C-alpha cells in the first residue's frame, strides 16, 4: 500500500510501479529495504556554505566592527557579481535556463559568500554584546554591585581536583543574563549581558545520610542554588571580575553571600514542568545501586549532579563521556520508536510505531516535532542537543513534505542554522565533537560496515564496529587536544555499551514521563533501566582500570594533526592487514597484551615491579601512596594519594589484589582522596586511621567509602603491633593518651616502624618538627635508630627535625612529591641534609615510582 507523501512521485506511470515492485522483491520483502539508489547521489552543496559560516563565526567573534562590516559588504558584493554574471550567461546561451549543472559552481560560490556575510554579521553582533553595557567597565575595576540576573542554564557543581592537603572550595556555576545593575553610588543601570555566576558552596553536615538527591555525597545537604531553574530571576550581591578566558561571557560575578538565593522572578511554566520531570526522575532512581543512581539521570536528561569524580574520570578515560552528556543519540533513540531506524531515512518506506498505528506522514512529522521540542526543553539547549534538534527538524520537514531527503544536507543545514543563531557554538568543543561523530556515522561508517560484511563479519557486528571505529577516528584528535591522552579501549568499550544505551534511555524516558503521575510505576521502570545503566558504568570502570587503557599524547593542535596522520596511516595499513587474517590476529593479540599488561609479562618486558620488591612508593603526583609487600598479590597500603585512577593503576602494576590493611596516616585530601581506587576490585580487610578527625569532610568521606564497601574502620595508637605473612610493624605515633592534642592534622599522622625480613623502614606520614621531636622523646624513640629506608615526612618539605633525621640515619631516603608542584617539595635543604648523612635520596617527581628490594648489603631500589 502507498501512503500520501511517502516519497513516490504521482506522475510515475504504471511501468515505474513494476520497477518498484521488483526492487522490493529483490530486497526479500523486508519492510523499508528499498534500494538506496532511489534517493540518488548525496547532495553536498550545503556543506561548503555550512563550513564557511562555521569558520567565519569562529574568527569574527573577536573582530572589530570595521572588519565585520567590510567582510559582510565585500562578500555580498561578490555574491551579487557572481549571480549577475550567471543570469547574463543564462540569457545569452540557448537552453541555459534548463540545461545541465554547469552553472552550479557559481551558485554554490555565491551561496558561500552570502553565508559568510550572514555569519560575520551574526558573530559581530554577538561579540559586541560582550563589550556593550556597564559590566565590562565594572569588571575592570573589580566593583561590587547588586545585580538582577536571569538564569539561562542549569546550575552545575564543580569539584576541583585535589592539588594539596585540602581540595579547593566546591563551587556552583550558573550561566545568566544580567538585566539590572545597582552600583555603590546608587546608580541603576538596565542591560542584558551574559555572565557567569560563581557561588562558593559550604558543605554542611547532615544527620541523615539518605539524601540521595543531594548534589554532594550522601550526608551533605544540597545547596539551594542547585535547585534554581532556567528563566528564574535572582538578586545577588557580587564582585564583578573579568572572565578568565575569551568565552561567551562579559564578566564573572563572584557571589558574596551564597547561603540562600534571593528569588525575584519565578521560572516559566515550561521550565517548571521540565524541573518537575527531572526531579521525578531523580526520585525514581533513589533506590538504585550507586552507579545506576548516578548514571541514569545523566543518560536520559544530562543531569550529572550525582556523578562522582571517580566515575566521571572513568568515562573520560574510556571515551564514554558522550554518554553522560545528552546528545543526538538520545533524540535518535526516541524518534526511532516513532519513525523507525535512521538508516531508512534515505529510502522510500518507513518502520517504527507510526506506520504500524496507521499515522500519516504529516502527523508523524508533527509528533516528531513535538517530541523534539519537549526533548530540548527538558534536556536543556546544550550544543549537542541543539545540533540534534536542528538536524531532526530538517529531516522531519522533509518527511512532512514528502520530498526526498538526505542526512548529510540535514546535518549541514543544522550546522549552518545553529552557527548563525548562536555563533559561540563555532568555538565549542562539544559542538565540534557532536558534528564530527555524526558526520562519521553518515559517511565513513556505512563504507566500513560494507567492507566488514564483505569479509564475512556478521551484519549487526559490522555496523556496530564500523560506527564505533568511525566516530573514534574522527573525534580522537579533538579529544587528544582536550585530555592530552589517547584511549586504546574506546572502541571496545563503546561496542560493549552500545546495546545497553538504548534500553537504558528508553526506560529512563518512560520513568521520566510517568514519575509526576505514577511514582511506583516510574520506580519500576527505573529499576529495569538500572541494569543496563549499571552495565555501562561497569564497562567504564573496568576499561579505565586497565594498565594500558590509554597513552599520553601532546595536548595541542599540532599533536592533533600528528594523531590524525597516524590514524590515516593505521587505516591504510589496516586495509592491507584485512587481507591476511593471521596478521590481523597477531596484531589483535599484541594490542590486547599492551592494554591488559599482565603483571608477569610486564615484569619481563619493563622490569617493573622488580622481583622480590618489599616496599613501593607509587607516583601519584603531589601526595602519598605506598605499599608494603606481604606475599604474592598481597600488600599493606599506607595512604591512598589524591587520585583514585593513579593509585589504582599503581596497585594493578604491582599485582596487588588483596589488602589486609589500609593505613591512612591522616585525613588531608592528598593522602585519602584516592581511597576509592584502592578499594576498587580488591579484597580489603580493614582501614586504620588516626584518631584526630580533621578535616571533618575528609574524615566523613573515608567513613562513607568504607561503609559503602563493608570495610571496618579502626584507629591507630602508639604501641600497637601487627603482623601479616613476613611483614610486621609497630605504630610509633600518635600517642594513645587522649589528652595529647596535636597542633594539626599533619602532627596527628600515623607513623610506622616496619620490618620486612631483614629490612627496617620508618614511615613518617606528614609529621612536622613539633611532633618529630615529641616522637624522639617517646618510648619508641630508642627504636628509631639506624633504619634502612626512611619515607621522608611531608613530601620532603623544609620543616624537618635534624635530631630525628640523625637518629634514623637512613641508608635510603624516599620522597613522594608531584612534578612541578607549587610547594617547592622536596626542599633542597632537606635533600642536602640527608645526603650529608650518607643517604641515597630519590623522589617520585624526578624518578617516578620507586621499589625497594633486597636487604643488608644487597639493599637496592628500582624506578618505574
Describe this structure in words.
Helix content is about 45%, strand content about 15%. Mean pLDDT is about 80; it is low at about 1-40, about 95-100, about 205-220 and about 340-350. The protein is built from 28 helices and 26 strands.
Concise summary:
The protein has 864 residues and is an alpha/beta fold.
What key attributes describe this structure?
alpha/beta; eight-stranded mixed beta sheet; seven-stranded mixed beta sheet; 26 strands; globular; disordered N terminus
Give helix % range.
Answer: 40-55%
Per DSSP E runs of 2 or more residues, the count of β-strands stands at 26
By DSSP (H or I, 4+ residues per run), the number of helices equals: 28
- Mean pLDDT across the residues is 80
Q: How is the biggest beta sheet arranged?
A: 8 strands, mixed
**Strand order of the biggest β-sheet:** 17-16-14-12-11-10-25-26
Strand content is 5-15%
Shape: globular
How is the topology of this model organized?
Layout: H1 14-26, H2 47-60, H3 65-92, H4 104-129, H5 135-140, E1 144-151, E2 156-158, E3 171-182, E4 188-200, E5 233-241, E6 251-255, E7 262-265, H6 269-284, H7 290-301, H8 309-317, H9 328-339, H10 353-356, H11 361-379, H12 383-401, H13 407-421, H14 429-454, H15 459-483, E8 485-487, H16 490-514, H17 519-545, E9 550-552, H18 557-577, H19 581-596, H20 599-606, E10 613-617, E11 626-629, E12 635-638, H21 644-654, E13 658-659, E14 662-664, H22 669-672, H23 675-679, E15 683-684, E16 686-689, H24 696-708, E17 712-715, E18 721-724, E19 727-733, E20 751-756, E21 759-763, H25 769-777, E22 789-791, H26 802-808, E23 812-815, H27 828-836, E24 840-843, H28 844-847, E25 850-853, E26 860-863
Parallel strand pairs: 4-6, 12-14, 13-15, 14-16, 16-17, 21-22, 22-23, 23-24
Antiparallel strand pairs: 1-3, 1-5, 2-3, 3-4, 5-6, 5-7, 8-9, 10-11, 10-25, 11-12, 18-19, 19-20, 20-21, 25-26
Helix pairs in contact: 2-4, 2-13, 3-4, 4-13, 6-16, 6-17, 7-16, 7-17, 8-17, 9-11, 9-12, 11-12, 12-13, 13-14, 14-15, 15-16, 15-18, 16-17
Amino acid at each position: 500500500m502507498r501512503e500520501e507523501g511517502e516519497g513516490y512521485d504521482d506522475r510515475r506511470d504504471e511501468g515505474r510501479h513494476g520497477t518498484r515492485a521488483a526492487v522490493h522483491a529483490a530486497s526479500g520483502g523486508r519492510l523499508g529495504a528499498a534500494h538506496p539508489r532511489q534517493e540518488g547521489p548525496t547532495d553536498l552543496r550545503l556543506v561548503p556554505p555550512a563550513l564557511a559560516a562555521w569558520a567565519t563565526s569562529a574568527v569574527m567573534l573577536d573582530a572589530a566592527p570595521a572588519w565585520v562590516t567590510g567582510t559582510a559588504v565585500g562578500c555580498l558584493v561578490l555574491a551579487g557579481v557572481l549571480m549577475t554574471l550567471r543570469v547574463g550567461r543564462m540569457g545569452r546561451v540557448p537552453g541555459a535556463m534548463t540545461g545541465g549543472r554547469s552553472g552550479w559552481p557559481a551558485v554554490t560560490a555565491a551561496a558561500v559568500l552570502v553565508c559568510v556575510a550572514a555569519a560575520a554579521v551574526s558573530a559581530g553582533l554577538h561579540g559586541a554584546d560582550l563589550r556593550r553595557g556597564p559590566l565590562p567597565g565594572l569588571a575592570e575595576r573589580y566593583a561590587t554591585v547588586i545585580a538582577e540576573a536571569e538564569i539561562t542554564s542549569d546550575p552545575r557543581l564543580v569539584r576541583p581536583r585535589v592539588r594539596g592537603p585540602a581540595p579547593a572550595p566546591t563551587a556552583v556555576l550558573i550561566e545568566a543574563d544580567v538585566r539590572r545593575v545597582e552600583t555603590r553610588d546608587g546608580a541603576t543601570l538596565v542591560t542584558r549581558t551574559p555572565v557567569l555566576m560563581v557561588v562558593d558552596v559550604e558543605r554542611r553536615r547532615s544527620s541523615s545520610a539518605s539524601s540521595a538527591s543531594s548534589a554532594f555525597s550522601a550526608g551533605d545537604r544540597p545547596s539551594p542554588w542547585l535547585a534554581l531553574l532556567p528563566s528564574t530571576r535572582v538578586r545577588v550581591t557580587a564582585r564583578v571580575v573579568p572572565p578568565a578566558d575569551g568565552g561567551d561571557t562579559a564578566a564573572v560575578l563572584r557571589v558574596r553571600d551564597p547561603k540562600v538565593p534571593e528569588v525575584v522572578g519565578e521560572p516559566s511554566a515550561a521550565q517548571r514542568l521540565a524541573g518537575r520531570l527531572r526531579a521525578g526522575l531523580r526520585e525514581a532512581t533513589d533506590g538504585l545501586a550507586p552507579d545506576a543512581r548516578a548514571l541514569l539521570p545523566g543518560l536520559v536528561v544530562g543531569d550529572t549532579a550525582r556523578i562522582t569524580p571517580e566515575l566521571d574520570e572513568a568515562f573520560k578515560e574510556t571515551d564514554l563521556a558522550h554518554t553522560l552528556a545528552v546528545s543526538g543519540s538520545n533524540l535518535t533513540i526516541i524518534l526511532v520508536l516513532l519513525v523507525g531506524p535512521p538508516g531508512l531515512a534515505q529510502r522510500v518506506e518507513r518502520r517504527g510505531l507510526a506506520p504500524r498505528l496507521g499515522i500519516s506522514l504529516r502527523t508523524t512529522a508533527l509528533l516528531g516535532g513535538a517530541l523534539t521540542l519537549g526533548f530540548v526543553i527538558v534536556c536543556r539547549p546544550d550544543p549537542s542537543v541543539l545540533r540534534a534538534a536542528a538536524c531532526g527538524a530538517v529531516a522531519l520537514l522533509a518527511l512532512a513534505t514528502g520530498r526526498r531527503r538526505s542526512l548529510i544536507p540535514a546535518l549541514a543545514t543544522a550546522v549552518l542554522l545553529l552557527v548563525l543563531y548562536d555563533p559561540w557554538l563555532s568555538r565549542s568543543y562539544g559542538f565540534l565533537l557532536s558534528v564530527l561523530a555524526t558526520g562519521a556515522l553518515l559517511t565513513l561508517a556505512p563504507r566500513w560496515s560494507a567492507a566488514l560484511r564483505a569479509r564475512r563479519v556478521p551484519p549487526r557486528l559490522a555496523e556496530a564496529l564500523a560506527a564505533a571505529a568511525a566516530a573514534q577516528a574522527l573525534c580522537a584528535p579533538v579529544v587528544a587536544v582536550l585530555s592530552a591522552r589517547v584511549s586504546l579501549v574506546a572502541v571496545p568499550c563503546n561496542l560493549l555499551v552500545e546495546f545497553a544505551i538504548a534500553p537504558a534511555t528508553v526506560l529512563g524516558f518512560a520513568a521520566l514521563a510517568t514519575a509526576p503521575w505514577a511514582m511506583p510505576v516510574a520506580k519500576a521502570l527505573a529499576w529495569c533501566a538500572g541494569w543496563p545503566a549499571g552495565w555501562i558504568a561497569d564497562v567504564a570502570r573496568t576499561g579505565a582500570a586497565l594498565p594500558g587503557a590509554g597513552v599520553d599524547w601532546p595536548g595541542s593542535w599540532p599533536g592533533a594533526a600528528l594523531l590524525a596522520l597516524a590514524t590515516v596511516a593505521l587505516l591504510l595499513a589496516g586495509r592491507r592487514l584485512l587481507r591476511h587474517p593471521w596478521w590481523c590476529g597477531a596484531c589483535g593479540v599484541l594490542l590486547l597484551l599492551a592494554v591488559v599488561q599482565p603483571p608477569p609479562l610486564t615484569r619481563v618486558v619493563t622490569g617493573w615491579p622488580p622481583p622480590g620488591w618489599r616496599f613501593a612508593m607509587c607516583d601519584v603526583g603531589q601526595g602519598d601512596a605506598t605499599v608494603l609487600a606481604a606475599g604474592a598479590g598481597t600488600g599493606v597500603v599506607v595512604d591512598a594519594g589524591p587520585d583514585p585512577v593513579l593509585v589504582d593503576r599503581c596497585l594493578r602494576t604491582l599485582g596487588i589484589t588483596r589488602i589486609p590493611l589500609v593505613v591512612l596516616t591522616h585525613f588531608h585530601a592528598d593522602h585519602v582522596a584516592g581511597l576509592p581506587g584502592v578499594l576498587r576490585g580488591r579484597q580489603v580487610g580493614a582501614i586504620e586511621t588516626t584518631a584526630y578527625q580533621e578535616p571533618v569532610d575528609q574524615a566523613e568521606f573515608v567513613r562513607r567509602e568504607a561503609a559503602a564497601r563493608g570495610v571496618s574502620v579502626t584507629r591507630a595508637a602508639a604501641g600497637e603491633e601487627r603482623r601479616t605473612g613476613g611483614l610486621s610493624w609497630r605504630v610509633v605515633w600518635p600517642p594513645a593518651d587522649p589528652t595529647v592534642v596535636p597542633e594539626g592534622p599533619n602532627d596527628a599522622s600515623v607513623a610506622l616502624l616496619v620490618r620486612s625480613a631483614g629490612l627496617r623502614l620508618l614511615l613518617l606520614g606528614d609529621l612536622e618538627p613539633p611532633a618529630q621531636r615529641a616522637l624522639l622523646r617517646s618510648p619508641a624513640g630508642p627504636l628509631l635508630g639506624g633504619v634502612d629506608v626512611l619515607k621522608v615526612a611531608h613530601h620532603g618539605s623544609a620543616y624537618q627535625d635534624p635530631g630525628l633525621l640523625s637518629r634514623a640515619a637512613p641508608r635510603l631516603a624516599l620522597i613522594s612529591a608531584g612534578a612541578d608542584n607549587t610547594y617547592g617539595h622536596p626542599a633542597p635543604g632537606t635533600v642536602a641534609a640527608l645526603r650529608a648523612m650518607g643517604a641515597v635520596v630519590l623522589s617520585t617527581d624526578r624518578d617516578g615510582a620507586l621499589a625497594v628490594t633486597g636487604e643488608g648489603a644487597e639493599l637496592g631500589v628500582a624506578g618505574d
